[in-house]
Amino acid sequence: MEEYAIELSGVMQNRPNFKLGPLDLQIPKGFITAIVGPNGCGKSSTFGLMLDLDKPDAGSIEVLGEPLAQGIPTELKKRIGYLPEQPSSHEDGMKGTEKAAFHRFWYDGWDVNRYRELLRILEVDDNQALGKMSKGMRRKFEFAVSLAHAPELLLLDEPSSGLDPLAWKTMIEILHRYMDRGDRTILMTSHIIEEVKRLADYIVFMAQGRVLGVYEKDELFGSWFTLFVSGEELNAKKAAGMPGQCGVEHAGGTTYRITTSRAAEAEEWVAEEGLTLVSRQALELDEIMSALLLQDRLSNRLI
Ligand SMILES: Nc1ncnc2c1ncn2[C@@H]1O[C@H](COP(=O)(O)OP(=O)(O)OP(=O)(O)O)[C@@H](O)[C@H]1O
Predict the structure, then answer these.
(1) C-alpha dihedral, 166 to 167 to 172 to 173, nearest 10°
(2) Are 104 and 136 within one domain?
(3) Residue nearest to atom 26 of ligand 1 (CA)
(4) Residue 302 placed within a domain
(5) Is residue 53 within 6 Å of ligand 1 at its C-beta?
(6) 74 confidence band (pLDDT: 50, 70, 90)
(7) Number of folded domains in the chain?
(8) Which residue, 30, 51, 206, 218, is most buried by CB atoms nearer than 10 A?
């Protein structure tokens, strides 16, 4: 069994106002990976390339071990579920039952019991025109449809967009259960910190069409900290020497607030330098993203 569900090598796409890539990215099989990044950084465009909805200008893409160079084979499509960020408006006049019938015909793995169960749990009535459903109702319906053929790979673009908190919780439970078997993969995009924390095993940070880094979630949250450090000898210059340092602020008296991406080494450094660790605060995902963006801008300026 191949190790990665998706592999991008040197993938580039040039649009008049946007340059995507080069992207070198491997999405591990059997896990949930979340792509996070500011609006317009290229998350949905990357999904489009992975699904062959759009072609790259350079590079190669493999999905579930199959190259997409000659387009996406039908058999491969059947192994994938996709929830786009926006529903297709040309389906607005279609009833939910009609869309489900189409999927049942097309996807060999379509499981009508599973589909009905998903609708029941999500409290969706599929006997209405898709364009008449409320935004959240439509989202829940499309979500159920993307899952009902039990795909090996599920691509979810902003899955919780428009969902109320209760529906959001239900969606998280469904996705956790879907992953229970261990051989399925989810790649999702998200702006919701809590969603990424609850769901993702791996986090991909993207900015301006590039990947800033791929991190294992627990490792990420275990290594980014703000440390409050004090010492008679401590000054801004010395504080800047902390391993993984990415921000120093004077916090009054002899105390400095230092942010680090390598907390374990940083704490060793504090002890070796004879300083006192007053307190430590884990960084939130958005704070880590801001620090990575700042580092990226600084390193680009230096090139
Ligand atoms: N069909 C298209 N033709 C030309 N440019 C496009 C097209 N789709 C997207 N873009 C541009 O590509 C860039 C990346 O857009 P994309 O939708 O991939 O970002 P995103 O990270 O998914 O954003 P968001 O978080 O807002 O959903 C943007 O500058 C956007 O304007």
Answers:
(1) 80
(2) yes
(3) 39
(4) no
(5) no
(6) very high
(7) 2
(8) 206
